[in-house]
Specification:
Elements lengths: L8 E2 L8 E11 L5 E11 L9 E4 L4 E7 L2 E2 L5 E4 L2 E4 L7 E9 L9 E5 L2 E5 L19 E10 L5 E4 L2 E8 L4 E12 L6 E4 L2 E8 L5 E8 L8 H18 L7 E7 L6 E2 L4 E5 L12 H16 L8 E2 L5 H19 L2 H21 L10 E2 L8 H18 L1 H15 L3 E2 L1 H12 L8 H4 L5 E9 L4 E9 L10 E9 L2 E2 L11 E4 L3 E6 L7 E4 L8 E4 L3 H10 L3 H26 L13 H18 L4 H8 L4 H8 L5 H30 L11 H20 L1 H14 L3 H12 L4 H13 L4 H12 L6 H9 L9 H14 L1 H4 L5 H14 L3 H8 L10 H15 L6 H11 L1
Parallel strand pairs: 2-12, 18-19, 19-21, 22-24, 25-32
Antiparallel strand pairs: 1-23, 2-3, 3-9, 4-8, 5-6, 5-9, 7-8, 10-11, 11-16, 12-15, 13-16, 14-15, 17-18, 20-21, 25-26, 26-30, 27-28, 27-29, 27-31
The protein binds phenylalanine and zinc ion.
Zinc ion (ZN) binds next to helix 3.
Length: 887
């Protein structure tokens, strides 16, 4: 248990290491409780450091067994050692070797940082600071070393031994039942990219030849018997490798590329050099167990980790404040890959939905921080939607501002100037500045300012002159007033289609808002236009513009930009829900039964009619897009839009009412649509985007049927559940049933739970589905499921599925007025903190928006958080989140 009081680390305090470590030779003898690590470090003074400084190595829960300098044992007064560090008081001021022997217990390691065992497989996780749990080291990303690793283990227990880089010598250790393998990684890397794996694993593999003609063996390792479920991931690796060559000119640089799936993993996956280690959720897939969303996520995460080989590994980060340098950039790269593999428009809408659902609330609450934070107490708490998703939006804005050619040239320059280095955000921006000749210093404010900027827009049309004037004003609450550089992709749309208007300040469809406010004028505008602003979501801002529903529905019909067509429908629905939710909240209860279509009013009717017309015209041409247009903003989106005095029950009722109205209005279309989208009998399953899109729309129709006509919906869902040939359709049917209380639901849930009793990843979907039922009985259901044999606090996926989904996806029950939902979360965080502080802290961030709630609910949340803060013995991870959440 960590007991240190949190210490704040600041960007402004950065200074280079006093020592460097050029080479690391590791000899790791794996054993369940008594693993021995012998590390030989080639150390030298750093010319950029302080001469004669002590050598201060990081450690965490280590037992020191031996220490030698240039082969000589050190006298006891020459060093100080504890589980948390090793200091040489007066190291030689010349190159020397230090040999350190440590002992660790991988079986006891439930934090899943450092070396641990997952389902009997030895594996490591070293980002951000896990390597110090293996051996004493300069565990900071600007110390780059060449690693040679000898791994030894029992032959039966761990027939497969994997390390970073390329394989070398391997063989038996005579007379012991043990064997070894040596791996050598020629590319200097920081310790956080170190990895090893030892265990009993199945392997699928394929050859790849790089654009430079290098032969590579690509392999994916999974739990025995699951080989066939790794084929999709293997194919995704090969496609990623080809794509990074074509899109960014980046070839692979070793003879092997290995991916290993493990079932206990704190995050999604990890980009260790040549040996990516994955949460098995992002590797394993077949039609019986994986949904279309799972396939898409696997493709994206495989690509993400692979792309890190350049954006993260060849060019790494100088310090953890620069985390977005690898993460924002790599998210941007994986988003581009997925857009090329799938439908760009559909993918973009998905990206923005995630950004708004996760990053916007973070940026609006107490955990808000700049994309490049300036201070942290626990770096593991900064792997956030802001660093990742907003970080990716910043890179995308650079491309929008510079255009694709200068952007690509800037990327090439960034890679070549920084190859083999630990770089900064400044290095990144200077590459683009050099290639484009532009000054990006004002743009750089995006990295420094927390909060989501608002842009308000107002237009006026002069029929006489045919001019349209558009005024834009930006604001960032809490900012210092210096404006951001905001690319606004835009166009004008008329009653019958897009307008050909001209404005000299718009280049390639983009106006750059650089001042606090600005006004631009379009000529040749014969009719009053509807402006289509932030096409493709060209900047991560909130747009405020007083458009009427009729104008928005014109955009839905006629805009050339698919993102803004979707956005138009969302905006209309948002206003309808907001109006109703706020009216309801003021009414003070008692209106339970009166939610019928008859109450809906002309605005909701016009919305439903527009969606009906849209479906008739386009549903079958682009089902994936149509499914998105039919979807309403989430309850969380509505809460964020309100910003204060949030009553989740009122939002839930208002949103349900609009869904019901939409379902009833479209009722006559739903069955024919489902029939038209059904696959031909006997057609084989394909996870491709077009097939997934047809399933998405058919299931959106089923969902509307379920709310419009629960009886017919139940029947249809039961029939689909019985006939489904894939997990997407089965889970969609089960989700519809889950929303309709009654015996059919309980029967279906029970049967599903039994059928997949031995499939933990499928049970996760089942846990999450039940945890998000918006009914009072859900708390009891969760209590029951916590005792399910498959549930375990030691497995992050299980905890996220059952408890995380509750906190994130069940606003009415999590934020119950009686505080019971908050209490459930808090109890879980406290219990989990003793097992896995990182996951406990992550779970605690579900309280991030507590101040937005109406006073009764927010004071419940505040009390529970304060009570937790008073408990002794909390981890640094949880202490840090608590302090910031309550600040
Ligand atoms: N670097 C990993 C990724 O984004 C995320 C990660 C961070 C994994 C810390 C484990 C621990 O690809
Ligand atoms: Zn990453």
């Amino acid at each position: 248990m960590r007991t240190e009081t949190p210490q704040t680390i600041r960007l402004e305090d950065y200074r280079p290491s006093d020592h460097l470590i050029d080479r690391v030779d590791l000899d790791i003898r794996l054993a369940p409780h008594d693993t021995r690590v012998s590390a030989t470090l080639a150390v030298r003074p750093n010319p950029a450091g302080v001469p004669g400084a002590p050598l201060v190595l990081d450690g965490d829960e280590l037992t020191l067994l031996g220490l030698a300098l240039d082969g000589q044992a050190l006298p006891a007064d020459a060093f100080a050692a504890s589980p948390g560090g090793l200091t040489l008081h007066a190291p030689p001021q010349r190159p020397f070797t230090l040999t350190v022997e440590t002992q660790i217990d991988p079986t006891a390691n439930t934090k899943l940082m450092g070396l641990y065992r997952s389902g009997g497989v030895y594996c490591t996780q070293c980002e951000a600071d896990g390597f110090r749990r293996i051996t004493y080291f300069l565990d900071r990303p600007d110390v780059l070393s060449v690693y040679t690793t000898r791994i030894e283990a029992d032959r039966e227990e761990a027939p497969v031994l994997l390390g970073n880089g390329d394989p070398g010598e391997a063989g038996a250790v005579p007379g012991t039942g043990r064997h070894f393998a040596v791996w050598h990684d020629p590319h200097p890397k920081p310790a956080y990219l170190f990895a090893l794996v030892g265990g009993r694993l199945d392997r699928v593999s394929a050859p790849f030849t790089t654009m430079e003609g290098r032969a590579v063996t690509v392999a994916v390792y999974v739990e025995p018997g699951k080989g066939p479920r790794a084929d999709y991931a293997l194919d995704a690796v090969l496609r990623s490798m080809r794509w990074d060559e074509a899109a960014f000119g980046r070839p692979y640089d070793l003879a092997v590329f290995n991916v290993v799936a493990v079932s206990d993993f704190n995050m999604g996956a990890m980009e260790n050099k040549g040996l990516n280690i994955f949460n098995d959720k992002y590797v394993l897939a077949d039609p019986e167990t994986a949904t279309d969303t799972d396939y898409a996520n696997i493709e994206a995460v495989i690509a993400h980790e692979y792309f890190h080989n350049w954006s993260g590994n060849r060019v790494t980060c100088r310090d953890w404040f620069q985390l977005c340098l690898k993460e924002g950039l790599t998210v941007f790269r994986d988003q581009e890959f997925s857009s090329d593999m799938r439908s760009r428009a559909v993918h973009r809408i998905g990206e923005v939905r995630t950004l708004r659902a996760r990053q916007f609330p973070e940026d609006a609450g107490p955990l808000a921080h700049p994309v490049r934070p300036r201070a942290y107490a626990e770096i593991n708490n900064f792997y956030t939607a802001t660093v990742y998703e907003k970080g990716a939006e910043i890179v995308r804005m650079i491309r929008t501002l510079l255009g694709p050619a200068a952007f690509r040239a800037g990327m090439d320059r960034y890679f070549s100037e920084n190859d083999g280095r630990a770089a900064t955000v400044e290095d990144f921006l200077s590459a683009f500045a050099a290639e484009s000749g532009r000054d990006l210093s004002a743009f750089a404010r995006w990295y420094e300012r927390p909060g989501t900027p608002r842009v308000s827009a107002a237009g006026s049309h002069d029929a006489q002159t045919g001019r349209y004037t558009l005024s834009l004003r930006q604001s960032l609450p809490g900012g210092d007033g210096a404006p951001l550089v905001i690319p606004v992709a835009l166009g004008l749309v008329g009653a019958a289609g897009p307008l050909e208007a001209t404005c000299e300040r718009v280049r390639d469809g983009v106006f750059v808002l650089e001042a606090a406010s600005d006004t631009i004028t379009f000529a040749g505008v014969a009719e009053p236009p509807v402006p289509s602003l932030f096409r493709g979501f060209s900047a991560p801002v909130r747009l405020e513009m007083d458009l009427g529903d009729a104008e928005r529905l014109t955009l839905l019909r006629h805009d050339t930009d698919p993102f803004n067509r979707w956005q138009a429908a969302q905006s209309v629905a948002m206003r309808l829900i907001l109006d109703r939710a706020t009216a309801r909240a003021q009414e003070a209860e008692g209106a339970e039964g009166a939610e019928g279509a008859e109450e809906a009013g002309p605005a909701a009717a016009a919305y439903a009619a527009a969606l009906g017309a849209f479906l008739d015209a386009e549903a079958l041409a682009d089902p994936a897009f149509a499914a998105l247009v039919l979807g309403l903003p989430g309850e969380g989106d509505v809460a964020n839009e309100m910003g204060r005095d949030v009553d989740p029950d009122a939002i839930h009722r208002a949103r349900q009412a609009l869904r019901r109205h939409l379902g009833r209005s479209l009722r006559g279309r739903l069955d024919p649509l489902r029939a038209a989208l059904a696959p031909a009998a006997g057609a084989p399953f394909s996870p491709d985007a077009a097939s997934a899109g047809r399933r998405a729309l058919a299931n959106a129709a089923l969902d509307l049927l379920g709310i419009a006509d629960p009886e017919a919906g139940t029947q249809a869902a039961e029939a689909q559940l019985a006939a489904a040939t894939n997990m997407t359709d089965r889970l969609a049917a089960l989700s519809v049933l889950a929303q309709i209380p009654g015996p059919a639901r309980e029967r279906a849930l029970e049967a599903f739970g039994e059928r997949y009793a031995d499939e933990p990843l499928v049970l996760d979907k089942w846990f999450a589905l039940q945890a998000t039922i918006p009914e009072a009985g859900t708390l009891e259901r969760i209590a029951r499921l916590r005792r399910h044999p498959a549930f375990a606090m030691t497995n992050p996926n299980r905890v996220r599925a059952l408890i995380g989904s509750f906190g994130l996806g069940n606003p009415t029950q999590f934020a119950r007025a009686d505080g019971a939902g908050f209490a459930l979360l808090a109890e879980t965080v406290e219990a989990l903190d003793r097992v896995n502080p990182q996951i406990a802290a992550k779970l605690l961030t579900t309280f991030g928006s507590w101040r937005m709630l109406e006073p009764a609910r927010s004071s419940r949340a505040g009390e529970i958080l304060s009570r937790m803060q008073a408990r002794p013995g909390l981890s640094r991870d949880v202490t840090d989140i608590l302090a910031r959440t309550l600040a």
